[in-house]
Specification:
Length: 320
């Protein structure tokens, strides 16, 4: 909080010392845009740090609750290491640098968008704040994509290998382990499902920051294209994750159906038990198995769409 207040204080001093007018909704000042951009950058950093800690805590909690193992599989160990915070941030920094490099090349090739700022101080402030907000948004986006990719690898592994749970070590019933596996995946992907919304929230803030109610801002096609590629990558990753999770659920239900078919007469109690497991598996609606109404992709897409309506109302109010 102190760092954020310091940044805003510095921005305020720069604004006072520049030739750029200070106004809110007059359509002649770039400073409201810079303040919103700076706020978005601070929010990106906060979300990335808190999400990182949430993923770490979730991993520890799920490990304690389920005690999942794979009988010493090297691949399982590697997948578990990929979920470590240090590994996550190494990949995030590397891919973020590559993404920002692509943005730099786009700017060099197509040119920078026109910035309606006045004076050298305002130009420098605009360039610095714009790049800080871009970098922070890219880091958050890449961190979210990496989190989804880690879970996708794990789910694909679970589809082709047997996972045993220490919490059910004395349970010989294969159907019970299938149910635990679905509960395990749902618990693991709860935080990721929530995180997917963050880049869409930041996108809405940055789009609102360049609204003409503040100044004569423009968007150029290359920036829109690069932003769309990043967000579409996240959407595609989430949809692929959902498809693989549903395939894992279908495999579990199919296994239970086979076990039910093998039962002979007089096994009504066991049949009822297996049917109960199958019902629980099909009824799981948490994490990656959430309904489409609660799907993070649908909710994420609705955030900017709802923001567009709000921006329209803001523009109409400014015209009055």
């Amino acid at each position: 909080m102190f760092g954020a207040l310091t940044l805003f204080g510095l921005l305020g001093m720069v604004a006072v010392a520049s030739a750029e007018p200070i106004a809110l909704f007059a359509g002649i000042s770039a400073w409201p845009t810079q303040a919103i951009r700076l706020a978005a950058a601070v929010l990106c950093i906060k979300l990335a740090v808190t999400s990182s800690r949430s993923l770490w805590l979730a991993k520890r909690r799920v490990a304690t609750d389920f005690g999942a193992t794979s009988n010493g599989s090297t691949t399982w160990t590697e997948l578990d290491k990929r979920a470590d915070l240090a590994s996550r941030w190494r990949r995030t920094v590397g891919w973020s640098a590559a993404f920002l490099g692509a943005i730099v090349l786009t700017d060099l090739f197509f040119g920078l968008p026109n910035a309606p700022v006045r004076g050298a101080v305002a130009h420098w402030a605009d360039a610095i704040v714009a790049w800080v907000s871009r970098a922070a948004a890219v880091v958050l986006l890449v961190f979210c994509i990496d989190a989804v990719a880690v879970r996708l690898r794990l789910i694909r592994w679970c589809r082709n290998h047997e996972v045993r749970f220490a919490s059910a070590a004395d349970e010989p019933n294969r159907a019970f382990h299938e149910k635990r596996e679905i509960d395990y995946v749902a618990a693991l992907t709860t935080e990721e499902s929530r995180m997917v919304l963050f880049p869409f929230m930041i996108l809405l803030i940055l789009v609102c920051a360049k609204h003409r109610v503040f100044d004569d801002w423009h968007w150029n096609a290359p920036i829109i294209a690069v932003t769309a590629v990043g967000l579409l990558t996240l959407v595609a990753a989430v949809l692929i994750l959902r498809a693989n999770a549903e395939a894992l659920r279908s495999d579990a239900v199919r296994t239970i159906d086979v076990d039910i078919a093998k039962l002979g007469h007089g096994n009504d109690e066991e049949r009822a038990r297996l049917l109960s497991y199958g019902t629980d598996i099909l009824g799981c609606r948490t994490g990656v198995f959430a309904t489409w109404a609660g799907n993070p992709v649908v909710q994420g897409l609705l955030i900017p769409l709802g923001g567009i309506g709000g921006m329209f109302l803001l523009e109409q109010a400014a015209r009055q």
